[in-house]
Every structure is written in structure tokens, then in C-alpha cells.
Write a structure and sequence with these properties.
mainly alpha; 0% strand; elongated
Length: 385
């Protein structure tokens, strides 16, 4: 028995095959040197076509980082989260079902002086004296984030690449990304030593920060005696000692407006260098910026943007009062939004096409959000003085 419509489908494919065969012959006639050459060329073409097809499928059907959210069971008022509500007994015949009264329970204070489930039930928070909160020292999140950003690169698969004599010769994209992260960490650590932990020019430096900055200034491509990663690990140890002193109150972090402006000036200098390398058409010696160099500028700038994005998220919270006084919270939000755009760029291949051509110029794609960040930094510095 034939399925309905089967003859139409089969006739369509029988008519399609001669067309595909004809197209193939036309392509073969246009590029005879390719098909008459070694077989590896044809295999390479098939591999590239498959790679591009998989990339297009990934853009059309992106995978969700989180799975579907399972349905949540309904809970009775007053029932803590994660506890299923007890089923209500059946109502007698002739009587409407009445909801059971919530079982009274003594509220316990949460982390913020709020009883568990109080926000869901619309209750007011408990008094301050009922739930004393643990004081978090200012600057702890700042230093913790700074340590984590460099630690992620040192603990990356195959480790620190710029000084690798074998693997590092083939991973220049990762090398330049790590160099960008390192340079931004150096600028941040310098401002932490010079301004963010001192009341003024006559104040003493924190000795752990002095040692950390000196260790971070070691050459990134030094293989041994000592190796670059060993020096950077020691720098992170010094920053960790400073972090412990912050938590215990032995060291200080000073979130003043002038310190924020000093950090912004330093970031603007480094970001301006990155932006110039992203938009220039020629090097200082007059030679054109080639594709092999453009990807170095791209990934170096992305490494810098990653550090700025992580640090400025903490700055938005730590310097909240100063930003509110300057009415600069929207500026900080826009900076974070533009930096997040630059951090998530992951092209399969860095292209250096003409700006009027149909293919991408990834240096220009990276320069666009960083240009907006530079403009925001100018506005913030203008407001802050």
C-alpha cells in the first residue's frame, strides 16, 4: 500500500538529483585545478564546509546554558521552601472545602535580619537587634576579584602560555589574551598600592602590595630562573596576605571619590592604547596591519576588557555612594554593558576585511564597544573632576 503523497515526494527527489549533478559539474568546470589536483584538497573543502555548517547551526539554534526549569509544586503560605505542602483532607459531602490555617511557627532570623519566607509573605524585616549582621570589610571583594582574574589564567589548561617554548608557539590568541589580562591586573594592583589603600602622598605603602606589584612586573615570556608563572603565583600570595589583613582590620581600603577618579584615569590610559591598536590601519613604521597581527590586537584588548569588567562590577558596589553623589550610576551601568559585549565576542576566525565589504572586520567589532567605554570614562572623569 502506497502512502499518500509518496509519489510526489519521490518524483521531487528524482528531479532534484540531475540538478545537483549539473551544479556539481559546473563547479568542477569553473575550478578544474582544484578537482584534478591531489585528493587532500577535496577532503579539506569538505572539512571546511562541515565546520562552517556546524557554526551556522550553532548560531541559529544556540544551546541554552541552563536546562528547563522543573515545575514547582504549590506551597501553602508559611511553608518553607523545599518542603511540600501537606495534602488537605477531603471535605465532607455538602460542605465546601475550607483551607487549613497555617501552622504557627516561631520565625528565625535570616542573613539580613529577615525571617525565612518573610519576603514571600509580605512581612516586614526583623529589627536590627534581632539579627546582628556580620560586618564585611570594604575592599575584600575588590582584592578577591583581582586575585581570581589572574588565577584563572595561571590555572588554565596548559597553564601560562606566553613563556611556553612548545605549545605557546601555536596558541598566539591565548598568549595575547593572557598578556592583556596581566597588563590590566598590573594597572589595577598599582592603583591599589598607590591610592586605594593610602590617605595621601605622605602615607606609607602596604608592604604586601609593594611586593605584589614588583612581582607582577616580571617579564611574561621568561621561561625559568625564575619562570614568569612562579613570580605571578608569589604575587598572588602577597595579595592574599593583604586580603587577610583587610578581613582582620590590619589593612585598609579607602573608597573615596578621588581614588575612584585615579582608577578611572589609569584604566582610560590602558584602554586608549587598546583602542588605538584596534582602529589603526598602519603601524608606526608605515607597514599595513596584517591579519596575523590584527588577531593579536583583538585578543589583547579582550583580555584587558575582561579584567575591567570584573573589577568595575565590584567598583559599582564599593563606590556606590560616590557614584550616587555624581549621578554617575547610569554611566557605570553603560560601561559594564559595553564591556560585556566585548568580552563575549568569540569569532571562529579573526578576519581583517575592508569596512565596506560583506565580511567582518573583527578589530572594528571590538573597537566599537570599547570606544563607548572610553566616552563613558571621559564623562565620569569630567563629573568627578
Amino acid at each position: 500500500m502506497k502512502l499518500p503523497g509518496f509519489s510526489k515526494v519521490s518524483s521531487f527527489f528524482r528531479g532534484l538529483w540531475p540538478r545537483v549533478k549539473g551544479w556539481g559539474l559546473k563547479v568542477k568546470s569553473l575550478f578544474p585545478w582544484f578537482f584534478e589536483g591531489p585528493r587532500w584538497r577535496l577532503y579539506l573543502l569538505c572539512f571546511v564546509a562541515l565546520f562552517v555548517a556546524l557554526g551556522l547551526l550553532g548560531m541559529v539554534f544556540p544551546s541554552s546554558p541552563e536546562g528547563p526549569t522543573p515545575p514547582r509544586a504549590s506551597q501553602a503560605p508559611g511553608t518553607p521552601r523545599g518542603t511540600a505542602a501537606a495534602p488537605s483532607p477531603p471535605a465532607p459531602k455538602g460542605h465546601a472545602a475550607q483551607p487549613l490555617p497555617a501552622k504557627p511557627s516561631e520565625p528565625r532570623a535570616g542573613k539580613e535580619g529577615v525571617a525565612p519566607g518573610a519576603r514571600e509573605r509580605g512581612q516586614a524585616p526583623l529589627p536590627e537587634e534581632a539579627a546582628p549582621r556580620v560586618e564585611v570589610r570594604v575592599g575584600v571583594d575588590f582584592v578577591t576579584t583581582l586575585i581570581g582574574l589572574l588565577r584563572a589564567e595561571l590555572d588554565r589548561t596548559l597553564g601560562w602560555r606566553p613563556n611556553d617554548i612548545i605549545v605557546g608557539k601555536f596558541t598566539d590568541n591565548v598568549n595575547n589574551f593572557q598578556l592583556g589580562v596581566l597588563e590590566a591586573v598590573r594597572y589595577t594592583a598599582m592603583r591599589l598600592k598607590e591610592d586605594l589603600t593610602r590617605h595621601g602622598d605622605a602615607d606609607a605603602y602596604d608592604p604586601h602590595l609593594v611586593d605584589a606589584v614588583n612581582l607582577l612586573l616580571n617579564r611574561a615570556d621568561k621561561f625559568w630562573f625564575p619562570s614568569a608563572e612562579s613570580q605571578y603565583n608569589e604575587a598572588l600570595e602577597e595579595l592574599s596576605l593583604h586580603l587577610e589583613n583587610l578581613r582582620s582590620g590590619k589593612s585598609r581600603f579607602i573608597p573615596r571619590g578621588d581614588n575612584l577618579m585615579s582608577l578611572m584615569r589609569s584604566y582610560k590610559d590602558l584602554l586608549g592604547n587598546c583602542h588605538r591598536n584596534l582602529v589603526k590601519a598602519r603601524e608606526l613604521d608605515g607597514s599595513e596591519v596584517t591579519s596575523s597581527i590584527s588577531d593579536d590586537y583583538f585578543y589583547y584588548s579582550q583580555g584587558v576588557a575582561k579584567v575591567f569588567y570584573g573589577i568595575l562590577k565590584v567598583v559599582k558596589v564599593t563606590f556606590r555612594e560616590q557614584l550616587m553623589v555624581l549621578d554617575a550610576m547610569p554611566i557605570m551601568d553603560d560601561m559594564l554593558s559595553q564591556l560585556s559585549r566585548s568580552v563575549v565576542l568569540e569569532p571562529i576566525l579573526i578576519m581583517e576585511s575592508d569596512l565596506q565589504w560583506i565580511f567582518a572586520n573583527h578589530r572594528a567589532n571590538m573597537a566599537a564597544p570599547l570606544s563607548a567605554v572610553l566616552n563613558d570614562m571621559d564623562n565620569l572623569l569630567e563629573y568627578g573632576g
